[in-house]
Amino acid sequence: MSILHTCFRVASNQFRNHLNLKAFVGRNISTMRLPEVIDVLKDFAPLQYAEPWDNVGLLVEPSTKQEIERILLTNDLTENVLEEALMNRSNLIVVYHPPIFAGIKRLTMNDWKQRIILKCIENHIAVYSPHTSWDACPNGVTDWLAASLPVLSQKIALPNPINSNFGGGRVCMLKVEMTLDDAVRRIKAYTGMPDVRVGIAVNKTIESPIGSFAVCAGSGGSVLKEIKDPIDLFITGELSHHDALDAIHRQIHVVTLNHSNSERGYLKLFKKILQDRLHTTTKEIEISVSKVDVDPLSTY
Fold first, then answer.
1. Are 142 and 217 in contact (CB under 8 A)?
2. Which residues partner with 255 through β-bridges?
3. Which distant-in-sequence residues (6+ apart) come within 8 Å of 2 by Cβ?
C-alpha cells in the first residue's frame, strides 16, 4: 500500500469521525440513553403503584450500553411483533403485558416466550413492561377507557393506600343519561371495535337508561366485586361466566371487548405522551405503535 493511499485513508477516517462527533454532540443524548428513557417511563407511571403480584419495569437489559433510537410500543410481545421490531431496528420495546411473568427455569428455543427473550438478548433489544402501573396512574389505560363515554365526574374505584391519586378501576357519572344501546355504540366507535359482548341486566333492556358506569381494562372481575358504588354499567375486557351472571343480577349491564382490546387503543395516546415527555420528535427518537399486535381472539 502506497504512502499516499495510507494518508488518504487516515484523512478519510478523521473526517468521518469528525462528522459522527458533530452529529453526536448535536443530539440531546440525555433523552437517548436507556437509563434516562427508563426514568421517563417510571416518572409517568411509578412502579410502586403496580399490583404487588405484577412483574413490571425493565425485564431485558442489553449487555452493552447504547442510546435508544427507536421505540416500539405493543400490548403483547409475540413473535410477529418481535419480527416487526427487528425489521424496524427498534432497540427498546415497551410492552404492556410482561413477557416474563412466572419464574423461568430455562431459556431454550422450544418455547415461544423463551425464544422471544433469547432473540431480544441476541439483538441487544431492551424490554420494558409497565402493566398495572399504567392501569393505576393518571392518564393511563384506565382513564383512557373511561373516556369512551362523556364523563361528568369520576373517581378511582380502588385507591392505592399509599397515594390515593393512583389505583385500579374508575367509577364515573355521565354528563347526560343515555340508553345502553347508545352507550354501546359510543364504546365501539371510541375503541374501534366492530363487535363487543353485552350483558343486559335482569329485568332491563337495551333501551334502559344509564347514568353511571365503571371501567377496568383487562380482566375486571376482581375490581367489579370491590365496587360498592351504585353503577348501571361495567366496561371491561373480559369477565368469567359467573362474574357476568353476578353482575346482571346486581342490575349492572356489562360490556366486554376481549381482554387486550380494552387496553391496546391506549398505545396511540401513550405515543404522544412519551414524545412530549422525551422533549423530542420522531425525527430524533422514532416511536411507533405495533401494526401486527392483535387480540388472539376474534369474531367470525
1. yes
2. 198, 235
3. none
Distance CA 106, CA 117 (A): 11
Long-range contacts of 101-105 (CB under 8 A, 24+ apart): 101/55
d(CA 146, CA 148): 5
Q: At what angle do helices 266-277 and 34-44 cross, to 10 degrees?
A: 120
Q: What predicted TM-score, i.e. pTM, was given to this entire model?
A: 0.87
Q: Three cell numbers at 172?
A: 364515573
Q: Whole-angstrom Cα distance, residue 42 to residue 198?
A: 36
| pLDDT tens digits, 144-168 | 999 999 999 999 999 999 999 999 9
- What residues contact 118, with CB distance under 8 A and at least 6 apart? 107, 109
Cβ–Cβ under 8 Å, residues 40 and 277: yes
Residues in the annotated binding site = 97, 135, 259, 263
Which 3 state secondary structure label does DSSP give 113? helix
The owner of cell 382490546 is 261
Q: Are 270 and 73 in contact (CB under 8 A)?
A: yes
Interior angle at CA 198, CA 194 and CA 204, nearest 5: 140
Task: Give the sheet arrangement for strand 209-219, strand by strand.
Answer: 151-159, 167-179, 209-219, 233-238, 253-256, 197-199
Provide the terminal-to-terminal Cα distance of the chain, rounded to the nearest Å: 69
Could you report the per-residue pLDDT of 188-201, keeping only the tens digit for each? Answer: 999 999 999 999 99
- Helix 112-122 × helix 79-88 angle, to 10°: 20
Could you give the count of Cα atoms lying within 13 Å of 220 in the half-sphere of its Cβ? 31
Task: Name the binding residues for a divalent metal cation.
Answer: 97, 135, 259, 263
Strand order across the beta sheet in which 126-129 lies: 57-60, 126-129, 92-95, 70-74, 286-289
User: ∠ at Cα 99 (118, 134), nearest 5°?
Assistant: 140
